[in-house]
Amino acid sequence: MLIAWTIGLGLIFGSFLNVVIHRLPLDESLVWPGSRCPACRAPIRPWDNIPVLSFLILRGKCRACGATISWRYPFVEALTAALFFLTVTTFGPTLQAALLLVFLCGLVAVAFIDLDHQIIPNAVTLPGIPLGLLAGFLVGDPPLLDRLIGCLAGAGFLYLVLFYGSVLYGQEAMGEGDLNLIALVGAFLGWRAVILTVLIGCFSGSVVGLGLIVAGRLSRRQHMPFGPFLALGAVVALFWGDALIALYQRLLP
Ligand SMILES: [Zn+2]
Known about the structure:
Layout: H1 2-23, H2 53-57, H3 72-91, H4 95-117, H5 122-139, H6 144-169, H7 176-189, H8 191-214, H9 227-251
Helix pairs in contact: 1-3, 1-4, 3-4, 4-5, 4-7, 4-9, 5-6, 5-7, 6-7, 6-8, 7-8, 7-9, 8-9
């Protein structure tokens, strides 16, 4: 029963995140007007706005004009629901889980806004940093000091990694937004998770970047957003970080 509620809530939050991802970078209101078809601007009726389900029933087309609706919308909804499910099954129905859900919603918004616009909005990351530190007071795990170190050292560490990256590749590989994002990860997950986040972010970003260059989809001059890979790294660090570190220690001679 709890699981069903969690997934339902995740779908609704995912639906709202779609609105945030679409409207926040355009400086539009998040609550007014209601959802419209991106092609014909026809208002979407409430019963056509059910997360994932409406997309399947309408076969990914607008009811008014028949324009194709991006699969990204149901994907973001399903992804958010999956993150809600993982959080509640891992941490139970606790205050810690609720705070992590806020963090994860922020990560989803940042990842897709960065993908679309190559910006990481401070409106998401900056308010999240004090909230993450406050969570250290409220739930204590990880402790406040770990979070503070993660926040400050994490941004500094990433700065070094990306500084050397920009020396190697001869271009600016980082924005202020990436540093704010890693500070946010530190504030919520502590410094151990920050190291893992940056490593996974750099590794997955390099693999995908090289793949796109080989496939001729990305030139070396083009900027590739780093936010989605950092967000992926933070999610892996949150749910599978301990398992990864244990595996790493077992593989050491
Ligand atoms: Zn339409």
